[in-house]
Amino acid sequence: MGTLIVLIVFALFITAILTGGYNKEAIEKFKKSKAWDWLTTVDHKKIGIMYFISGFFFFLIGGIEAIFMRMQLIVPHNDLFVGDTFNQLLTMHGTTMIFLAAMPLLFGLMNAVIPLQIGARDVAFPFLNSLGFWLFTAGGLLLNLSWIFGGAPDAGWTSYTTLALNDYSPGPGIDYYVLGLQISGIGTLIGGLNFIVTVINMRAPGMTFLRMPMFTWTSFISSALILFAFPALTVGLLLLMFDRLFGANFFDHAMGGSSVIWEHLFWIFGHPEVYIVILPAFGIMSEVISTFSKKRLFGYTSMVFATVVIGFLGFMVWVHHMFTVGLGPWSNSVFAVATMTIAVPTGIKVFNWLFTMWGGQIRFKTAMLFAVGFIPTFVMGGMTGVMLALPPADFQYQDSYFVVAHFHYVLVGGTVMGIFAGAYYWWPKMFGKMLNETLGKIHFWTFLIGFHLTFFPQHFLGLFGMPRRVFTYQANVGLEQLNLLSTIGTIGMVIGTLAFIFNIVITFKKGTKAPADPWDGRTLEWSISSPAPEYNFAQLPLVRGYDAWFMEKQAGNKEMPAAEPLGSIHMPSPSFIPLLMSIGFFVAGFGFVARGDYSMGILGLIIVFIAMFMRSFDQDHGYHIEPHEIEEANKGVKA
């Protein structure tokens, strides 16, 4: 009841603000403030920054949950976090890191960079871009508020229905999981669709598909995977919601349902999800390695086709997560071959990165260090993935710490190190200041050493028989020293992350102002000021080849040739409706968690429909930036 009252008061407060029910002078002052500007922005660069900040916030939360688990496992028979508490930590750590940290951090970089790389002034649908961010944020907050209101989900991040139905998880935790991920997933789906349309329709003149930078290509394929993979998860979550809230029996075996249906639906999404978060990291590696080797990316065309093949094969391997379910030898064999096949295009990328560095003038900036550290780390994760692709071997490895080590080498050693490389590489373009290189190198070395010390021993823990998802283990069976090493390793990752945070704080206080092209870059984003102006490009650039900006510099040009005369630029107006709609979904989610009385859930949906109605009749068609304003701004930048 207390939660209900808080939500009603909050909804009324927001309604009063939006309708001018308070002091109008104060409201007008607030609308001119920076806070209102960021809350209502539809600028892809600001939305990218908000995605990045939100994702990093959830990354810290997920990291704290992981530290608590390692503290519990530092010695056998520990009783620090046991039973249901440990299950909640485990579930929320995996869910937070996959859905609320890795994806928004990548979406932040994609939002900030892709329109600039293709020579566009914005994404295709600025309003939907804002809506996608706020829906993600609403879903993430709803999920994490489960710690305070009723208990966090406790059935594992995969939420298998043998554990997630009412009989086995009677509290509201799984309801938060189901509703939070549905709301967040709608935002992700909107974002993926937006990027697809942006890349197809908004490329600058001359920017053919085979002239697009690799980060744009990998993000484009990743967005296509989102478009086809997320509906499977959405359907599965919807069915689970009906089972839990309304007494349906889709997954209850005793009532004629099947828990294997959930596993299929989850992994039809779940394995493409791995490529959704690793492909953009591959793109970051390609940009960073090419730039800091001062060489064109080796085998660009083969990299493009390898990316497309990975996206295609990503939907043909999900059963390797289900080898022990009992689907039979034919099914297991087909998916084993498909799983091993996907290693081929991935291997192409690794060799192309190595050949790009071969003979290059390598500069070991922080971004390049993360890229170089990424390669052997990810290759180790890929090798253990091929081991897991063999059904007879998988029968031994499954549900052991060997699997935990494998996917952390892929997702942390791959995705997270890729994100850090991208953060150091594009930070000047996003914020206009240079991160400190000394602190950056401290971040890299402590994080890399800590990572390997944490997860490399876990391969042997798995081989020695330690099952995953357990909160204790026997003494004197050879597991103590490896668990101790694994926990000590987290200290290195904590120090590295703190160094990154300190670097950010120092940079904002007294960081060096970034020039337009601090790395001697090769792609279009480095041809404009740092940070990019509101309109990105005063005149759309004319692209005349791959690595368009580097090619123009080689020809002696100091700016990109223009594809149009300088003229009035149309810009979309900011809008509070995405925020209002997301609040509606948030209220609805909380309402449906409160079982028995769905009035609050219905109120939230009413808010959503009111916001949709307001959008339908919104007569604001944006504004224009005139040529004289652009010229004055450019004089200010040059001065």
Mean pLDDT: 92
Q: How many beta-strand segments?
A: 4
Radius of gyration: 25 Å
Reading the helices and strands in chain order gives HHHHHHHHHHHHHHHHEHHEHEHHEH
Structural class by sheet pairing and helices: mainly alpha
Provide the low-confidence segments as ranges.
none
What is the makeup of the main sheet?
A: 2 strands, antiparallel
- Count of DSSP-assigned helices: 22
Strand content: under 5%
Keywords:
single chain; 639 residues; mainly alpha; two-stranded antiparallel sheet; 22 helices; 4 strands; globular
Q: How would you portray this structure in words?
A:
With 639 residues, the chain is an all-alpha fold. It contains 22 helices and four strands. The strands form two sheets. Strands 1-2 form a two-stranded antiparallel sheet. Helix 14 packs parallel to helix 17.
Question: Quick gist of this model?
Answer:
This protein has 639 residues and is mainly α.
Topology:
Elements: H1 2-19, H2 24-31, H3 34-40, H4 44-72, H5 83-117, H6 126-144, H7 161-164, H8 173-201, H9 214-246, H10 259-293, H11 300-313, H12 329-341, H13 343-357, H14 366-388, H15 391-397, H16 401-431, E1 433-434, H17 437-463, H18 480-510, E2 512-513, H19 548-554, E3 569-571, H20 577-593, H21 599-616, E4 623-625, H22 627-638
Antiparallel strand pairs: 1-2, 3-4
Helix pairs in contact: 1-20, 4-5, 4-6, 4-18, 5-6, 5-8, 5-10, 5-16, 6-8, 6-20, 8-9, 8-20, 9-10, 9-11, 10-13, 10-14, 10-16, 11-13, 14-16, 14-17, 16-17, 17-18, 20-21
